[in-house]
Specification:
The protein has 529 residues and is α/β, with parallel strands linked by helices. Helices cover 44% and strands 15% of the residues.
């Protein structure tokens, strides 16, 4: 075992009591690390647990594992023990730079008995500034697969002349060898998995891109039926009736039908039938001649003429008056119409798409909607399910809206907390996707820590069923809910690693274990499979 550039004087005739750990203790440490590596957990969690063992049983209270990037250009910190995220931010090494870089470049062990006396120690993590009265010993060993160095393992311990640093170096070299095989296996498996996923994604995209319009979000089974319907009818001139509750995205389907059709180069004209009176609606649809009614100071083209060669979308067609229904029926049958105040018959080449949130069958039975018009527009119906019937899409939609509004508001909102997700899944969403979008916009606006919490959502979502509270709840209940929220967030960030979660929350593992038991939480639930 060689030592790069740095030298140290080992203690003379160390006794078992003067060394930090005996041979039996070293074997116990290696056995525990073997168990951790064999468990096959997520890589960062595995390496963090390895450091926990080196800390508790080996006295190496801080350390890092740096790995070489795939292109070999730089070293990045994969795992750091007892360093905060702020201390690690933007810390990079070049091969050959500092002690760590030199170990990766040469593949040889480095031992620094006192970092204060070693000029090559770069101290990128600012140990001297943060702990000016702390004298440390530093060890760094290469992580190698065969002759290829892929990273380095470093550890620190308080300086003690009685500690056998050579023995520590040998122990860390064995640990690094074990880690190297684990990292190499994971990288090979990840590369194979990525290749398979890329191929699978490519094949699925070739199939699904034909079905799913780009402007609609959702992968649930009911939405896939909608995509198939769009694909089946888009290329024709068939009249389509889009049905669904308010806020389900009927206009998005109409857009998808238009832009997937041969008429995509023509105009897409929308008319909201519920927003106009009978006289205004006729003028809007068919146009009018000058002087046809009070205020008609000039001739005006109607929407039917403007949409010639394209698509006319009639939203809320169930609100048409009986007179307008008759005129629309003629358009659907003969593609002919007359402007208000004119007897000249005009023709139009337009595809008509209709949408409604009303029950047209009941309206026909009540005499409010013409039966012949109903059959004329109901050639190819597409039913859009309400959001409560496609809950698999709630999180997908929420993430999409979070990204959209975070970008619009120039805010760094990265995720939605578990309690907020539970509230969204428990809510019945009477306003459907539109209500979800408005709720997320509000939550992004209120978020201050990059996370959307339950209290950022509208009060209508914060029911006792959704939030897990009983009525308003006592002070203790509310504190427990808040504690549960932040502990779950920490466990998710650390992927179930108790020691890492405790460091994140700046508390001790013992206190965290007590709180987790008190709140009946299961850390294993948050471990990545």
């Amino acid at each position: 075992m060689e030592i790069t550039g740095m030298t140290h004087t080992p203690p003379q005739d160390p006794t078992p009591s003067s060394a930090h750990h005996t041979a039996d203790e070293g074997l116990r440490i290696l056995y525990r690390i073997c168990e951790i590596l064999a468990a096959g957990k997520y890589q960062k969690q595995t390496l963090a647990e390895v450091f926990d063992v080196l800390d508790v049983e080996g006295g190496m209270f801080r350390g890092t594992i740096v790995l070489l990037s795939p292109d070999g250009s730089e070293l990045t910190i994969e795992v750091a023990h007892n360093f905060s995220a702020a201390e690690l931010k933007a810390v990079r090494y070049q091969p050959g730079e500092g002690i760590t870089g030199r170990v990766v470049q040469t593949g040889r062990l480095a031992i620094v008995p006192r970092i204060s006396q070693e000029p090559a120690f770069l101290d990128r993590l600012q140990r001297r500034k943060r702990w000016p009265n702390e004298e440390l010993s530093f060890l760094c060993v290469p992580i190698s697969v065969g002759s290829q160095v892929i990273g380095a393992l470093s550890a620190e311990r308080p300086f003690d002349p009685a500690v056998d640093l050579d023995r520590d170096g040998r122990l860390l070299s064995i640990v690094a060898s074990m880690i190297a095989h684990d990292v190499h296996f994971r990288r090979s498996a990840a590369a194979d998995r990525q290749a398979l996923e890329a191929e699978n994604t490519r094949l699925r995209s070739e199939l699904e891109d034909r079905w799913r319009p780009e402007n609609i979000i959702g992968n649930s089974g009911v939405m896939r039926e909608v995509y198939r319907s769009i694909h089946q009818v888009a290329a024709s001139d068939t009249t389509v009736l889009i049905r669904g509750e308010s806020g389900t995205g009927k206009e998005l389907v109409a857009h998808a039908l238009h832009y997937a059709s041969p008429r995509a180069g023509g105009a897409f004209i929308k008319v909201n039938c519920a927003a106009l009176s009978e006289n205004l609606l006729e003028s809007e649809l068919f146009g009018h001649e000058k002087g046809a009614f009070t205020g008609a100071i000039a001739t005006r083209k109607g929407r039917l003429e403007e949409a010639d060669g394209g698509t006319l979308f009639l939203d809320e067609i169930g609100d048409f008056s009986p007179t307008t229904q008759v005129k629309l029926l003629r358009v659907l049958q003969d593609r002919q119409f007359e402007r208000v105040g004119s007897n000249q018959v005009r023709k139009t080449n337009v595809r008509i798409l209709c949408a409604t949130n009303r029950n047209l069958e009941e309206a026909v039975e009540a005499g409010q909607f013409r039966q012949d018009l109903y059959y004329r527009i109901n050639v190819f119906p597409i039913f859009l399910p309400p959001l409560r019937e496609r809950k698999d899409d709630i999180l997908l939609l929420a993430d999409f809206f979070v990204e959209r509004y975070a970008r619009q508001m120039n805010k760094d909102v990265r995720r939605i907390s578990t309690p907020a997700i539970n509230m969204m899944f428990a809510y019945h969403w009477p306003g459907n996707v539109r209500e979800l979008e408005n709720s997320i916009e509000r939550a992004v606006l209120l978020s201050t820590d990059g996370v959307i919490h339950g209290h950022h959502l509208p009060p209508t979502l914060q029911t006792s069923d959704a939030s897990g509270t009983a009525g308003e709840g006592s002070f203790e209940d509310r504190v427990a809910l808040f504690e549960r929220d932040i502990i779950v967030d920490a466990l998710k960030r650390s992927e179930g690693n108790m020691a890492a979660a405790a460091r994140d929350l700046k508390t001790t593992p013992r206190i965290l274990r007590y709180k987790i038991a008190q709140l009946n939480l299961d850390p294993a639930r948050y471990q990545r499979k």
